[in-house]
Amino acid sequence: MQYPIYSFLTFLALPFAFLRLLVRSINLPAYRHRWPERVAWQLPVVQRPVIWVHAVSVGEVQAAVPLVRQLQKMYDQYDVYITTTTPTGSQRVQDIFGDGVWHSYLPYDLPVVVRRFLSSINPVLGIVMETELWPNLFAECRDRCLPVIVANARLSERSARRYEKFSATTRKILSCISQVAAQDELSAARFRQLGMPADRVQVSGNLKYEQTVPADLQEKSEVLRLSIGQDRPVWIAASTHQGEERTVLEAHAALRQQHPQLLLILVPRHPDRFTQVADLVRDKGYKLARRSVNEIPAADISVYLGDTLGDLLLLFAAADVAFMGGSLAEVGGHNPLEAAAIGRPVITAAHIHNFESVYQGLIEAGAARKVQGVKELVNAVDDWLSDAVSRNEAGECGRVFVAANRGALDKLMLLVCKELDSRNQPS
């Protein structure tokens, strides 16, 4: 056993992990199902060799889409097996890929469990999206000579400081990784500082720039705008967290003084909070429409709750201005590139350490603004709602910025080819 203390503590925590799933299932029943997969039982029976891709939740699944499509195109002799951690991530895999991939939850990081998992799916390559560093899982991959690529890797300064507190263990984990494909030079430098050999850290760019806009998005968004009102101003607060909705609703009240017909599209980050947020909106005196029950955001509706999965891009397209949540609370921000890619100017608050280089680039390009507090948020939204020329220019800057930063997929696929080719060479 490589990590006896960690493994023992993880084993002791197992009952509490299942209890947490049970508690979360109160608001999101999917957490109550498929528990055997969490300990690598009742996994799909794969028929062919697989490339295993791990994407923890919705954002990582979305980022992995172009990668998975390219793997299926270039390596059709392999199946793709995707693991997620959350039910929302699992649902997104099903919605996007259907039966085109194998899928299960990633099991808990216990030695016997990860051995059973890897023996069951027997992958030829592992690709872990962003920064999920699991000691026992990675050690077992190394013992099996299974190459692992950490793709679209990002490492904030805060996360790097946490890993530095356990520097010996961190170096040991990193030694199990074949390649780190970092989103930016800052993340790459932090991986090197933690002990990852420089020749195994590459700056590939951010896969989230690779997302393509669906051909039918404009048509669908026009239908939604017709129900809202073509001339009605609309702003969206996306991926909001606990406490942020109160600030957003306070800003909305102030904005409606200047824009009486203004509609707020409110999209909480976590589905298990949808009902809680709906109750908050009503308690604040707003008339609410919920997308999940097909309610229409007609003229008398002031808040439209985006309480469905997979519709965020459409809701961005139906709005004039986008505010990204996770930045008022100390979460670290969320991905603004979907909004930017379809030409929506972006507003963020201060806490953006998870996407610092992306926001910096958007701000420098004139496609985004950073605000502090309610007053600045109100002013930023009002500025863009009141000036269509400035709003459209900022949106176009965002589109150009996203297009100019594509190319991460090609660089990542070079690393994938290298690992698969070296594995297939005769010894």
Structural notes for this entry:
The chain is α/β, with parallel strands linked by helices and 427 residues long. It has two domains: 188 residues, 3-Deoxy-D-manno-octulosonic-acid transferase, N-terminal domain (Rossmann fold, 3-Layer(aba) Sandwich), CATH 3.40.50; 188 residues, Rossmann fold. The chain is 47% helix and 15% strand. The chain has 17 helices and 14 strands. The chain has a seven-stranded parallel sheet with strand order 3-2-1-4-5-6-7, sandwiched between helices. The protein has a seven-stranded parallel sheet with strand order 10-11-9-8-12-13-14, with helices on both faces. Helix 2 runs parallel beside helix 3 and helix 10 packs across helix 15. The two termini are 28 Å apart.
Number of strands: 14
What proportion of the residues is helical, as a percent range?
Answer: 40-55%
Contiguous uncertain segments of 5+ residues: none
CATH H level, superfamily name of the largest domain: 3-Deoxy-D-manno-octulosonic-acid transferase, N-terminal domain
Q: In terms of structural class, how would the helical and strand content be classed? A: alpha/beta
How much strand content do the residues show?
A: 5-15%
Task: Kindly give the count of domains.
Answer: 2
Task: Write down the CATH topology of the largest domain.
Answer: Rossmann fold
Give a quick summary of the entry.
With 427 residues, the chain is α/β, with parallel strands linked by helices. It has 2 domains: 36-205 and 407-424, 3-Deoxy-D-manno-octulosonic-acid transferase, N-terminal domain (Rossmann fold); 217-404, Rossmann fold (3-Layer(aba) Sandwich). The protein has helices at residues 4-24, 58-74, 87-97, 111-121, 135-143, 157-164, 167-174, 185-194, 217-228, 244-258, 274-283, 312-318, 337-341, 356-365, 373-386, 388-404, 408-424, and strands at residues 50-54, 79-84, 102-105, 123-129, 148-153, 179-182, 201-203, 234-240, 263-268, 288-290, 303-305, 321-324, 346-348, 368-370.
